[in-house]
Structure formats: structure tokens, C-alpha cells
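Deliverable D5.2: sample structural annotation.
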Amino acid sequence: MKQYEYLAKQILGTYGIPTPPGRVVDTPDDASQAVREIGPVALKAQVLVGGRGKAGGIRFAQTSEEARTITQAMIGMDLKGYVVERLYAEGKLEIDQELYISVTTDRNTKTPLVMASRAGGVEIEDVEDGAIVRRTVDPRVGVEPYFGRELASALGLEGTLFKEFADLVVKLYRIYRDKDAELVEINPLAVVKGHLVAADARLNIDDSAIYRHPEIQRIDEGSLLEKKVQEIGLAYVELDGDIAVMANGAGMAMATLDAIQFFGGRPANFLDAGGGASVEPTAQALGVLVSMDPKVILINIFGGITRCDDVARAILQVKEGVGIPVPLVVRLVGTNEAEGVRLLAERGIDAYSEMAEAAEQAVKLAGEAG
């Protein structure tokens, strides 16, 4: 379960990690008052999605009147499929440098993993591998001060920053452990006047451990896209990647996500089109994926009850209707496969027969899209 930024920062603060002064605002009047109390602020949309800055979800206000005007424009806006209901007004920072630090769970080794980089402020997936320091943690030992010092040294930090970073690593791991977190991330970890400040924060709690944490606020926010697909009668979960996925069956959808990640890509969603969805709901679901503005769309169908020719007709309905402005990769095997492949081929769409080939091609096209 993801936590809003302001809730994540509240928890960081209880562990002694510096954060800028801030307050939640729900109205233009609240934002105006925040500037009078804090000074110039960054107004941040509180939605559970990455890339807020590029999407217009973070704006700056120097005066109370400016804060009022910006808040009026931001409250109620559609931000990457989410309706903005509240903002976090946070003191504007004069940042000298941006670092990255996170604690997560390594799925391969099934152990905690600490990642750090001097290239903060961007998605960690966009940072060159050589610029990231990774250290696995023995959960029987945890993160002791020496671990933090070694990590700070690996980043080339010195003096005050060395000491503060080493201490922060220990505190961040304690949050990860104490809160049963899947991810604790500070990006950017800002250097302001020679000291470290958590300029942004993410905290994802393991859903299965929520019962142990009555102090954690439950977040039940669903995106507009999730609600729209649910209205169609299909299962949808939004993720953080750039390859939109539709498959028939939960197992097939999960296998598709795994295949994308195996080839180095990042799925943007989980969409289970079901075992027997007809042309219209399938076309509606594909239309939702198009509206996500992904880099690539991957459709993976193994037809049993689902007929491949129905899927092909749904694809063509969308292509000839609203259009599909991004590369489309289709894997089509099973009931009425030959007819489905023929229908697509007539419109210049090739269909793969192997899931691995389709996933690899999708990842390749996403990379070429930049």
C-alpha cells in the first residue's frame, strides 16, 4: 500500500530524518495561509503516481496570492489519471545537489537491498548502472553504522555530508524494517546549505502486514483509469512503467509482466481481459491503454474461451476509431488464431506466436522511444 508523500515524510520525521516544513492544503485559502506561515512554497499534488513534476503536479508560489491562484487551478485537475484532491505546501528549497537513496526488497535474493546514487532527482531506472551503488543487507544483522559509512564512502561523500548520509542510511533501514515496507525512497535527497534534506519521499507498505500497523493510514485511492476499467468488468492495476499490457487471465497477465521485466522493461499496468471478453469490452479496455500515453502497448492473448478473431476485431476497432499512436505488439495464439492473424495482417499488424519474442520486441521499441 502506497503512502502519500506527506504521510511518508511524517514517518521520516519521527525517525529524525530532516524534511522541509510543510502542511496539507485542501483549499486556496489554506495555501495562502501556508505561504504566510512558511514563506515561498512548492505546491505538490498528493497523488499516488510518479512523474508529478513533468505532468504539472508540482508548482511554486512566492506569494500568498500566487499560492491561492495555483491551488485553485490544481485542485480537481486530472494528473496522469488521478484527480488531485489535496496538495502539500512545502517550504521551497535552494538545492545545491541531489542524491538518491532507497531501501527495498531484492526479489532475486529475497533480502533487503539498499541503493544509492549521486544522480538523484530522476527515476532510478533512468540512471546509468555504473552510477548506482547497491548493497544487500543480511536481515539477521540489519544495517549498523559501519554499513552507512561504507555506503557514504562508496558515493565519495566527505565531511558533514558523509556523517549525515551514513546516519540516514541506518534510519531509513529502520523504517523499512519497523513498518514492513516494500520500499522506502528519498529522491531527491537534497543538499541544502551543506546539509541533507528529504525533498521527496515514497513509502510502500506490504499489504499483508497492514494489520500490524494501526498507525498507518489506509489509502484506497484508485486512478480514473482503474475505475474506468473496473466499470467495464475487467481487472486493472496501475504500475510505474511505460509498456502498457493487456492479457487474458491473471496468470497470463502476471507472466507477461515478468517477461517484460526479464528483458529489462517496465510494465505500466496489469490488465486482465478475462477468459471470454467480447469485442466491445476488449476494445474499451484497449482504448483505456491508449489513453495512458505509454511508449508501447503489448497485447498477449492465448485463446481458449477468448477467440483470437474477436481480439483482432477489437484491436482494429480502436485502431480505426480513436487510433493507436504508439507501437503495438501483439501475441495471438489459440482459438480462431488463423482468422485473427489474417485480420491483423490485412491492416499491417504482425502477430507473434511466442510470448518471449513479443515481450522482447516491446522492450526494444520502448527503449527506442526514449
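Annotation notes: Residues 238 and 276 are 22 Å apart (CA to CA). The first strand starts at residue 22 and ends at 25.
The annotation will be released with the project's public dataset once the embargo ends.
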